[in-house]
Amino acid sequence: MADQLLQQIVNSLLIGSVYALVAIGLTLIWGVMNVLNFAHGDFLMLGMFIAFWCYTLFKMDPLFSIPVCAALLFLLGLGVYRFIISKVMKGPGLAQLVVTFGVSIFLANLAVMLWTPDFRLIEKPLLTGTWSLGNVQLSIPKFAASVGSVVVSAAVFLFLKRTRTGKAILAVEMNRDAALLMGINTERINSLSFGIGSALVGIAGAFLSMYYYIYPQVGGLFGLISFCIVALGGFGSIEGAFIAGILIGLVQTLGGYFFDPAYKYALVFLVYLITVWIRPQGLMG
Amino acid sequence: MTDVRKFTVRQVSVSAAVLVLLALYPLAVRGSFPMHLMIMVFLFAMLGVAWNIMGGYAGMFSFGQAAFFGIGAYTSSFLLTAHQVNPWIGLLAGGVVAAVAAALIGIPCSNLRGHYFAIASIAFAEIVRIHFNNWKLIGAAEGLTIPMQDESLRNFQFNSSKAPYYYIILGFLLLALGVCSWVTTSRMGFYLRAIKEGHDVAKVLGIDVVRYRMAAIMISAFLTAMAGTFYAQYILYLDPESVLILPISVQIVLVSMLGGAGSVMGPVIGAAILLPISEVTRVKLGFKGSGLDMIIYGTLIMLISVYRPQGVWGLLQKVGRKKK
Amino acid sequence: MSAAPLLDVRGVTKRFGGLLANDDVSFTVSEGEIVSIIGPNGAGKSTLFNCVTGFYRPNVGSIRYASRDITRLAAHRICKLGIARTFQIVQIITDMTVLENVMTGAFLRTGRNGAAREKAEEVLRFVGLHEKLDGAATSLTIEDKKRLEVSMALATRPRLLMLDESMAGLNPVELRGMIALLRRVRESGVTLVIVEHVMEAVMELSDRVIVINSGRKIVEGPPKEVVVNPQVVQAYLGDRYRARR
């Protein structure tokens, strides 16, 4: 029994850290420009497909496609910001919410049209197999994905706190007008943040592609869960997104194990609703 | 925009003319698709009007209306199949259940605004969808089939023609428009708009913010559930993946935004434009799930949000005034 | 003349984490008075307002209005009882017309559209905004927006009106207009408590002045006395000036 519990906790941390990376990208975008990117899950899907095609066409293992995914999603993020998002910033809040739904529907169905709705899987990644640590089974690709996510999250955190550009991003997040007065080009920061947030989720996609099924609609649920994580952690808070990501991983896995696997996502959403009731600004908002 | 309605002769005659045309439409068209299309237009117009009461007016942007739609559809259908309750009674029951559900979700969300409220509404709708997908009592993922019965108004079922369905949903739409119109010109309408502006300015005018938000959500849920019962009696089959999904909720928001959130007639115009486009592209271009119809839909959403986010109704009003 | 005060604030203390914003503040306001609350920036004046009007709950102390304890009442209930207020940053409803804004206030006392409209027009005439009643609220000048905010408050038929820096940002002509308006408000039977920095208004309007500094009430009295009180001078200008006198 204790072994099972330990196994489930391990599984939670494995998925939770990847969730955290996905959420960090989303919360960065939200914190800087108050836009909730509903297409975030679909960006993840694109990251997964890029890794898949790199593997299928160029025999690149997902580990090596990480930079490719990051770069392409960064460019996609820049493009989406420049040509679509920036144009709704001045409009009503409702339009800002709705436009990213449009992007989401467009991308998911573009994937259907280009690649069919079929499920794909990377058959022989470099990292496969399982470690047995006592009675706990540790899937090696999941472990690698998890460690990678934590490393990247830490790198983002350091980037924001230590580099000049990073601090500029934080400044805009805290007070846009003040940052403008300090001579920070807030438009450029917007594009950059959207790009970085997208790149992060592209990296998460590369990690997930090592063991997860790849198909056009995969972004849907990940997207929804990442919104809950961001809101739970507090919009704009990187630390909050990380902690909330782990927490949601725990709720999902432990809840699914102890209550009912079919309801695991419902439990995630329930926990989110309860938290938001008790603490509307999120854990660290 | 002045709220006290002054009916000009022009407005009354235009409205009357439109109603007459709509009443004659079933007699003028042949074939199932044109009727189905208009029924969908009226259905989504009604859903949009119901959304508008809480979204356009009170600023509570719900992206979870599918939950109330599904609750209405399932309540009446379950009562009919398991307990032989007449669907019209089921209609009222569905509305009540949805209103209660709305009150329950309204409590934790009573202080949420903007993006926070939107996500909470999606979370709520997903919980409902997942639960219904697993709830054996109402068919779980296999769904619920409404048994064929003798064609009659009492049974809320018509097999030989779609025309009765057309008139019923048109009647429902007019009812919803009446409710929305009453809300917006009464004290409640003013209070909801104040709440949309900000909770502080509302409180300082003596407005009980929580009470009015709850009222708006419950009215909206009731009307949405009514539309759900209609849908169940029209299609005669329900399953969670056709009534409780996010795309339905998004379409409801779109219909209101395209037409003009915050105006009574906005969602009607929005439905009249959006539904034909989405239904026709689905039929003509959605072959074998190619996704092309949805690509166009997604593009349309982006274009509307960027170029005309305040909706089309304002434009129509301007045109109407210029002609004077 | 020894009727209970309209507003009776006793020992109000409000803490935000480590910050003591209001420290044991007590004062009373009698019906028909105009009382000003002054003090340097950050003294805790707006916090005090928020405690009285139900936007904050004081940690310690009580607030009585018309002999009734309102300390723990919600803000909208307090408004219903007859206390109205304005904000430092003008709060109006942006996508309504001027008339609709005031009607929203009037709806507190009547459910009927027609009656609300009549009351709103009456208030707009009193305040001098009647010509602009069909205009968009956002199209008004700053002075008119402040008048609109006052109208909305007056439409709720308050006995006590609390104004937070209503004179800020007005030029001399506008200032005279606002002072005249507040006099008319008092004459119509409404008691006023105003937080102000603009001394001209404080001197002209107030029956009494209360000075708050660092969360504490330091002086209270008629305007002419308060303004030369050495403690008040020190609070505003610092120690150097105290030594000079």
Number of strands of chain A: 2
Name the chain pair whose interface involves the most residues.
A-B, 49 and 48 residues
CATH fold descriptor of chain A = ABC transporter involved in vitamin B12 uptake, BtuC
Low-confidence stretches of chain A: none
The description of the largest β-sheet of chain B is: 2 strands, antiparallel
What is the compact description of this entry?
The complex is a heterotrimer of chains A (285), B (324) and C (245). Chain B has helices at 9-28, 32-57, 65-83, 87-106, 114-134, 163-185, 187-197, 199-204, 209-235, 240-243, 246-259, 266-285, 292-307, 313-323, and strands at 144-145, 237-238.
How would you describe the overall organization of this protein?
The complex is a heterotrimer of chains A (285), B (324) and C (245). In chain A, 75% of the residues lie in helices and 3% in strands. Chain A is built from eleven helices and two strands, in the order H-H-H-H-E-E-H-H-H-H-H-H-H. In chain A, 54% of the residues are buried. Chain A has one domain (2-278): ABC transporter involved in vitamin B12 uptake, BtuC. Chain A starts with a helix and ends in a 7-residue tail after the last helix. Chain A has a two-stranded antiparallel sheet with strand order 1-2. Chain A has helices spanning 2-33, 40-58, 62-88, 93-115, 140-162, 164-174, 176-181, 186-208, 219-233, 238-258, 264-278; strands spanning 130-133, 136-139. The model of chain A has no long low-confidence stretch (mean pLDDT 91). With 285 residues, chain A is mainly α. Chain A is globular, with a radius of gyration of 19 Å. Chain B has a domain at 31-245. In chain B, 73% of the residues lie in helices and 1% in strands. Chain B contains 14 helices and two strands; from the N terminus they run H-H-H-H-H-E-H-H-H-H-E-H-H-H-H-H. Chain B has a two-stranded antiparallel sheet. Chain B starts with 8 loop residues before the first helix and ends with a helix. In chain C, the strands form two sheets. Chain C has a six-stranded mixed sheet with strand order 6-7-8-3-9-10, sandwiched between helices. A four-stranded antiparallel sheet of chain C has the order 2-1-4-5, with helices on one face. In chain C, helix 3 (98-106) packs across helix 4 and helix 4 packs across helix 5 (142-155). Chain C is globular, with a radius of gyration of 18 Å. The model of chain C has no long low-confidence stretch (mean pLDDT 90).
